[in-house]
Amino acid sequence: MDKSAYHGNRHLKRTDIAIEFTPENVREFAKCSRDPIYFIERYVKIINVDQGLVNFIPFDYQKNVITTSVANRFVICKMPRQCGKTTAIVGLMLWYVLFNEEYSIAILAHKLTQAQEIMSRIQLAYENLPKWLQRSIIEWNKRNIELENKSKIIASSTTASGARGGSYNLVYLDEFAFVPNNMQEKFFSATYPVISSGKTTKVLITSTPNGLNLFYKMWRDSELGRNDYKRISIHWSETPGRDEKWKEETIRNTSVEQFRVEFETDFVGSSATLIHPDVLRALVYEKPIAIHSDTRIYQEPIKDHVYFATVDVARGLGNDYSAFSIFDCTSVPYQIVATYRSNDIAPLLLPAIIKSALEKYNNSYVLIETNDIGQQVADILHYDLEYENLLTTATDERSGVQILTSGFGQTVKLGLRTTKQTKRFGCSNLKSLIENQKLILNDEITIYELMRFIAVNNSYEAEDGNDDTVMCCVMFAWITQQNYFKDLTNIDIRKLLQQEKQPEIDDETVLFFVSSEEFVDEANTVFSVNNDKWLMFPS
């Protein structure tokens, strides 16, 4: 039995075992410590499915991932399936812990088993290093490695507590786009303080796209220069052996859409989103001109402008958010001028915040959703704080639907009670406003929530996470089709859209010859050209 082995593993050495270096070992160690590519190509081994244990010779794009990660604090990689990204990262992490004292790495994957799989590759490569390159082992298991130089690696799932309580030099997020959306947000809110606590802490994110989620947002923000992430995009054709013939075969055995996502690395949004994915991808948020606690200001109030606000109320227990958005409705396109969002504000305190914001915006009109605790907020705002421009609703006697009203009476109620019908109309109107560029969405949180606002059981709601700012927009879209709104703003958005679309409708009109014996419905138009009768109706 090898007494120098760590816990009987002859490929690892104990902490009390000394290795005598030759002059060549010293030169090689120094060279490896300066150049990760040299170290990886010469000493890192991997398992090849056909050849077994072989030296890892990285492709050019894998070298680019390694060198870019060394040179930058924040790196985000958009990569196709089965391109060897994990292998490259394994070599990089091994280089970091071997040649740096007290260097800590967190491997975080969307599933713990995936993080442990990456850890097992690191351990395989480590066990096959020459003993003079190895550091002695202090801890060695599926989730933790610690070396005698106090460098360590941990493996965990990407959860809010995945890296909590630790201090890391490198946080690696594997397949981050596949982490549930609500967990992505919670992870970054919990982990970023860990990252920002050091001036050199690195974040390396790699993933294949998976819809329009936080990974997409971070990639898009990088394109627009709104974060510090260095982008790396790898195309499937960069992997040796992948050509047009391979592409055709892969599509034949999967689908065009699957190939677009998994190999072309396109950000293909869910077909179930309320707003068309192409429109969502084109939305660009603005940087607020001011942020006051939970309020984001995009435009200061303008004298004589007409403003409307909508409010969605939560209980302030840390889950759903109380939110309101203020819209400039003076002209079309409408636009968001301010937003508020908090998940810990007590409903009793919210009315004062609402009033303060609305008074600033020319005593904005406001509609409050009153399904739950919102009724209490509306009552306080109206009766206690005596805010006058609180909008009311009533049930139309003929149609039985809720309508926006002015004044008060026995059948008039403060705010809006959201029903399936009002939500359906609001969602339909919101889709029309956004896709026809009649509403400028400049708020980051609202756009992000819209990307996950999907059809569920004949309605729309957040795929996971929150949709509170979106519901403010849904309520506003409902308002824009109300006669009272049109009277106040002198804007009929439906008529405006019809006027703009009329040339397209005229261009698509089809004419059919009609004989005198044929029946013509009264709704159609008949006119004469050269004494012949023609019937006109849209194609």
Strand order of the largest sheet: 7-8-9-6-10-11-5-12
* Main sheet overview: 8 strands, mixed
Strand content: 15-25%
Number of strands: 27
Quick description:
By secondary structure, the protein is α/β, with parallel strands linked by helices.
Give an account of the 3D structure.
The protein is of the alpha/beta class. It folds into four domains: 5-234, Rossmann fold, CATH 3.40.50; 238-267, no CATH class; 281-496, Nucleotidyltransferase, domain 5, CATH 3.30.420.240; 508-538, no CATH class. The protein is built from 17 helices and 27 strands. The longest helix is centred in the first third of the chain and has 16 residues, at 112-127. The N and C termini lie far apart (86 Å).
